[in-house]
Design goal:
The chain contains 25 helices and 26 strands. The protein is α+β, with helices and mostly antiparallel strands. Helix 1 packs antiparallel against helix 2 and helix 17 (about 530-540) packs across helix 18 (about 545-555).
Length: about 700
C-alpha cells in the first residue's frame, strides 16, 4: 500500500473518494440493515487509511467524510429522535504500542507531569446494538438507537420489554437527577441466540448469522410482541444528556448505575496506569471464549471526569477513550466458484463462493474479492484452498492461498471483459493525469444495463437521497420489472399513469391494496420538494457522494445554474472546467464526471423533465454564530490557562482556522507568556493581539 505522504494530490483524492464510498456503504449495511458485509478489521483498516490521507491532505476533509460522522441515517419504520449529546464512535488501537501512544496523547494534551499517573477504566466491548435511555425524575420516558450519531430511531416501546432496563430508577441508594440519559449496549446471550435460531429453523424462518444481528433485528421489530418474545439484555456503560452526573470518575458513575438497578459488566475495572490496562486487556481476552455473550475488544476511558471534560472530542470520537479490538479469527476452506456482481455504478465485483466453514462460531460461505487486482495479487483461483478471516459477524476476507494444496489443473482467474448482465463492454478507466488504470472494471452500458438502472433507482429513493417512505429496493425492483418505473421521472408520474391504466393497477400487485397505494402516492408527493445537495447526490453521478454533492450545491446554488454553466452555449468551456477544478475538494476525476453528466443531452433532458415534476430548493449557505468562525488564529508563547492542543481544538470547534505562522491574513494572535517574534510581527502587521483571558472572554469560555 502506498503511503499517503508519497501520493500526489490527484492520486490521494481518488483513493480518498474510493475509501469514502466504501465506508459509507459499510455504514449503511451495519447501522441500517443490521447486515454488515465486511469484517471489523477490514473496516477499521480502511478508516485508518482514510484518516492518514486526510492528515497528509487536510483539504480533502469534508463534513460528510466517514472520519467526521458516526454510523448511518436511521432507517424507515420508527420515529426520529435527535440526540442532544451526539452518540459518537471510538478510535481504535491495534496493539499495545497504540495504547501507549494514546496515553501519551492524553498526557500531552493535559500537560501532565511525568510522575502523575493516568487511571483508566477498562470494560469489555459488547458486540450488540447501542441504545440511549432517557429518564426524567427517575422515570424511563424515551429510548433510541444510535442512528447516525445525531439522529436515531425511537424504539421506546421495544426497550420497555427488556428485563435489564429499569422503568423507574431505584433511589434508595443513590439520588435521582431530574434528567439522566443512560447509554448502553443491547445484546443477546449465546445460549438464547442458539435457542432462537433453533425455533426459527423449525418454523421455516430465516436464521440469524450471529447474536449481534439477532439482537439488532429483534430490537428493531415494528411489532413489539416479537421483541418481547426474544430474550434481550442490556449492559449500561455511559451517559449523554444529564442535569447532573453524580460522580467524579467513570467508575463512580457506573457504581451509581448499579445502584439504580442497571446491569454493569462485571469484568469492568479501574486500572491505575497503562501497564495495568494492557494486563486487563489480556485477561479479558483469555476469558472471551468462556463468556455467554460476544465481545470484540476492550474499551479504555480516562477515569477522571474533569479530565474527560478537558480532553473533549475530535471529529467523530472522544479524545479520552479508545477501543482495542481483538485479533481476527481465521479458518481454512475451498473456493468452489467465483461469481461477478454488477453494482449501481457499473462496477464488476468478484465474489468467492466458499465451501461452508465455521469461523468463530459463524458459518460463512462467501467472501468479496473486491476487484481483479486483488485477485491477481493473491492469485486466487477456483479450486484453491484459502485462509479466510473475520473479526465479528460479517462476510470474511481471503487472507492467503495455500499454494501447496492447489490442484494441478487450476487456471488463473480473469474478470470478464463484458458485463454478465447486459453484454456491454466492461473496461478499466485510465486516469488522465497519472495514466494508470482504475482498479475497478466497469460496465459501459449505463443506459441499457438493468443492473445499473435498478441500482441507480434504488439509490435515488434511498434514505440519504429522496427518502421516499414505502418505496424501497423491493418495490423498485417490482415496478422496474413491471415496466412502470424505468427512470426517476417515472416515480413522480406513477400515480397519474396508474389512474389512466385500468388493466394494470398497483393495488392488485401482491403486497399492495388500496391503503398501501394511497400511502405510497402520498409519500411520493411529500418528496416533491428537495434540497439541491440531496438532489445532486440522488442522481448517482460517479464520484459524487454526499460531500461532493454539497460542494457543488454550495458553489452553483441551483440546478438551473448547473445546467446553464455546462450547456453547449458557453463561449469558453475550458474556463468552466477550470472553475470546477478550482472548487476546494474537487479533483480531476470528479470534475470529469460532473462535466460528462451535465453535458450529456440525454441527462439534461431527464433533469428538465424531472424538474417539471418537483421543486428543487436553491442552496442556502448557513450562518455561523461563532464570533471567530472563519477567522485565522495564531497561538504563541507559553499558555497557562490551557494547553496548546486544548486551545487549538477549542478554536477549531468554533469554526476558526488555527495557523502556526503570522501573515497579513491572520485575524487574531493570542499571546501567552514569553511571546517573542510572532508578537512583534503581528504588531508590525496590525494584527489584533490579545491575552489568553481576553481570548476566553471573547469566545465565552472565561
Amino acid at each position: 500500500m502506498v503511503e499517503p505522504k508519497d501520493m500526489p494530490l490527484d492520486a490521494a483524492t481518488a483513493e480518498h473518494r474510493r475509501l469514502t464510498a466504501f465506508l459509507q456503504e459499510q455504514n449503511r449495511a451495519y447501522y441500517q440493515a443490521d447486515a454488515p458485509n465486511v469484517s471489523d478489521a477490514e473496516y477499521d483498516a480502511n478508516l485508518l487509511q482514510l484518516r492518514l490521507i486526510e492528515k497528509t491532505f487536510p483539504q480533502l476533509i469534508s463534513r460528510e467524510s466517514p472520519s467526521q460522522i458516526v454510523g448511518s441515517a436511521p432507517s424507515r419504520g420508527f420515529g426520529k429522535v435527535q440526540h442532544t449529546v451526539p452518540m459518537l464512535s471510538l478510535d481504535n488501537a491495534f496493539n499495545s504500542e497504540d495504547l501507549r501512544e494514546f496515553e501519551g496523547r492524553v498526557r500531552r494534551f493535559l500537560g501532565l507531569a511525568p510522575q502523575e499517573d493516568v487511571a483508566f477504566f477498562a470494560e469489555p466491548k459488547i458486540d450488540g446494538l447501542s441504545a440511549s435511555l432517557r429518564y426524567e425524575n427517575g422515570v424511563f420516558v424515551q429510548g433510541a438507537t444510535r442512528g447516525d450519531g445525531k439522529e436515531g430511531e425511537d424504539i421506546t416501546q421495544n426497550l420497555r420489554t427488556l428485563q435489564d432496563l429499569p422503568l423507574t430508577l431505584d433511589g434508595s441508594r443513590s439520588s435521582i437527577p431530574d434528567l439522566f440519559e443512560v447509554r448502553g449496549e443491547v445484546y443477546m446471550s449465546i445460549a438464547d441466540f442458539q435457542q432462537l435460531n433453533q425455533k426459527q429453523a423449525e418454523a421455516g424462518n430465516k436464521v440469524f448469522a450471529n447474536p449481534r444481528n439477532a439482537a439488532a433485528g429483534s430490537l428493531r421489530q415494528l411489532d413489539v410482541k416479537i421483541t418481547a418474545s426474544r430474550k434481550l439484555r442490556l449492559f449500561a456503560y455511559a451517559w449523554g444528556d444529564v442535569s447532573e452526573v453524580g460522580g467524579k470518575t467513570q467508575a463512580e458513575v457506573l457504581d451509581q448505575f448499579s445502584n439504580w438497578g442497571f446491569s454493569v459488566n462485571p469484568l469492568s475495572r479501574v486500572c491505575s496506569n497503562m501497564s495495568e490496562a494492557i494486563d486487563a486487556y489480556r485477561k479479558i481476552e483469555e476469558l472471551r471464549s468462556s463468556l455467554d455473550y460476544d465481545i470484540d475488544g476492550v474499551v479504555f476511558k480516562v477515569n477522571r471526569l474533569d479530565w474527560q471534560s478537558r480532553l473533549g472530542f475530535v471529529s467523530r470520537s472522544p479524545r479520552w477513550a479508545i477501543a482495542h479490538k481483538f485479533p481476527a479469527e481465521q479458518a481454512t476452506t475451498q473456493v468452489e466458484d467465483i461469481e461477478v456482481q454488477v453494482g449501481r455504478t457499473g462496477a464488476l465485483t468478484p465474489v468467492a463462493r466458499l465451501a461452508p466453514v465455521n469461523v468463530g462460531g459463524v458459518v460463512v460461505s462467501n467472501a468479496t474479492l473486491h476487484n481483479e487486482e486483488e485477485i491477481q495479487r493473491k492469485d486466487i483461483r477456483i479450486g484453491d484452498t484459502v485462509v479466510v478471516q473475520r473479526a465479528g459477524d460479517v462476510i470474511p476476507q481471503v487472507v492467503e492461498v495455500l499454494l501447496d494444496k492447489r490442484p494441478v489443473d487450476t487456471e488463473a482467474y480473469n474478470l470478464p471483459t463484458v458485463c454478465p448482465v447486459c453484454g456491454s463492454h466492461a473496461v478499466r478507466e485510465t486516469n488522465p493525469l497519472t495514466g494508470k488504470e482504475d482498479v475497478v472494471r466497469r460496465c459501459t452500458g449505463g443506459l441499457v444495463c438493468s443492473a445499473q438502472a435498478v441500482e441507480r433507482l434504488k439509490h435515488f429513493v434511498s434514505r440519504t437521497a429522496f427518502d421516499i417512505d414505502g418505496l424501497g429496493a423491493k418495490q423498485i425492483e417490482l415496478f422496474y420489472n413491471k415496466g412502470l418505473v424505468k427512470s426517476p421521472v417515472d416515480i413522480f408520474t406513477l400515480e397519474k399513469r396508474d389512474q389512466e391504466n385500468p388493466l394494470q393497477k398497483i393495488k392488485n400487485f401482491e403486497g399492495f391494496g388500496d391503503k398501501a397505494v394511497r400511502n405510497l402516492f402520498g409519500a411520493i408527493d411529500q418528496r416533491r420538494e428537495i434540497d439541491l445537495d440531496k438532489f445532486i447526490y440522488a442522481l448517482g453521478i460517479r464520484h459524487i457522494g454526499q460531500g461532493n454533492a454539497r460542494l457543488l450545491a454550495k458553489n452553483y446554488l441551483s440546478l438551473d445554474a448547473l445546467l446553464d454553466v455546462f450547456s453547449g452555449d458557453q463561449p469558453d468551456p475550458g474556463k468552466v472546467y477550470v472553475d470546477l477544478l478550482n472548487i476546494d475538494g474537487i479533483g480531476a476525476a470528479v470534475a470529469d464526471a460532473v462535466k460528462q453528466f451535465f453535458s450529456e443531452e440525454k441527462n439534461r433532458e431527464l433533469l428538465l423533465n424531472l424538474a417539471a415534476q418537483i421543486s428543487i430548493h436553491t442552496f442556502d449557505v448557513p450562518d455561523e454564530d461563532s464570533p471567530v468562525s472563519g477567522k485565522t488564529v495564531v497561538f504563541t508563547g507559553s499558555l497557562e490557562l490551557m494547553s496548546r492542543a486544548e486551545a487549538k481544538a477549542q478554536a477549531e470547534n468554533l469554526g476558526a482556522k488555527v495557523s502556526g505562522s503570522i501573515s497579513a491574513k491572520t485575524d487574531y494572535l493570542v499571546a501567552g507568556a514569553k511571546a517573542g517574534s510572532k508578537l512583534k510581527k503581528a504588531e508590525a502587521l496590525g494584527v489584533t493581539t490579545m491575552s489568553e483571558q481576553e481570548w476566553l472572554d471573547m469566545i465565552g469560555k472565561s
